[in-house]
Specification:
The protein has helices at 4-17, 21-24, 165-168; strands at 49-59, 74-78, 90-96, 109-114, 124-129, 133-140, 147-151, 160-163, 171-180. By secondary structure, the protein is mainly beta.
């Protein structure tokens, strides 16, 4: 049996830790009781989302043909994640392959901001190369130099340098801004 003074001390500690007294005493695994009156412990459902079609796959690897292949799948993204930009400035792709592991994994979805150039060398981007291949890679370049290096994060995959005529047929589609992963 706990004395009033001991209970008061325990209640003060629980309050500081933002948990219940029963949780501190080991009587429950729930840190906080479900309180539906405050509106904070239940999900907030709003209509402030944007639905994006999953347009197709992007390789976290090489030699993957880029083709729009919408099967009807969509994801919802909170509008605030668009950071004031129009929904049309983005598109969603599914990652296939392992060259960007562990940052990007097969099955991940990426919300890509459309842009034709990178802010700086070392950014990750979605690139079309060799006419019809698409990949997600870290991109290294030196302004004014006639090459672009596709760098995988996974050390088991080699980097690829694009130069010469192949560089003329290479274009950046955008940069990933949101990773969506089911666990």
């Amino acid at each position: 049996k706990t004395s009033k003074a001991a209970y008061d001390r325990l209640a003060a500690v629980a309050s500081e830790l933002d948990v219940t007294v029963d949780y501190l005493r080991g009587l429950t695994d729930e840190k906080k009781p479900a309180d539906k009156s405050d509106g904070l412990s239940v999900p907030l459902i709003t209509d402030n989302v944007v639905f994006f079609p999953i347009l197709g796959d992007v390789a976290a690897g090489y030699d993957h043909i880029a083709e729009e292949d919408w099967e009807g799948a969509r994801i919802s993204v909170p509008r605030e994640y668009l950071h004031g930009r129009a929904a049309e400035d983005y598109f969603v792709l599914r990652v296939v392959g392992e060259s960007m592991y562990p940052l990007y994994q097969a099955g991940d979805l990426v919300l890509v901001l459309r842009q034709e150039a990178l802010q700086r060398s070392g950014e990750i981007g979605v690139v079309i190369y060799e006419g019809d291949h698409a990949t997600l890679k870290k991109l290294e370049f030196v302004t004014g130099e006639p090459w672009l290096k596709l760098i995988p994060i996974n050390p088991n995959f080699p980097p690829v340098t694009i130069e010469g005529e192949a560089l003329e047929n290479c274009r950046i589609l955008g940069v990933p801004r949101l990773l969506i992963r089911e666990i």
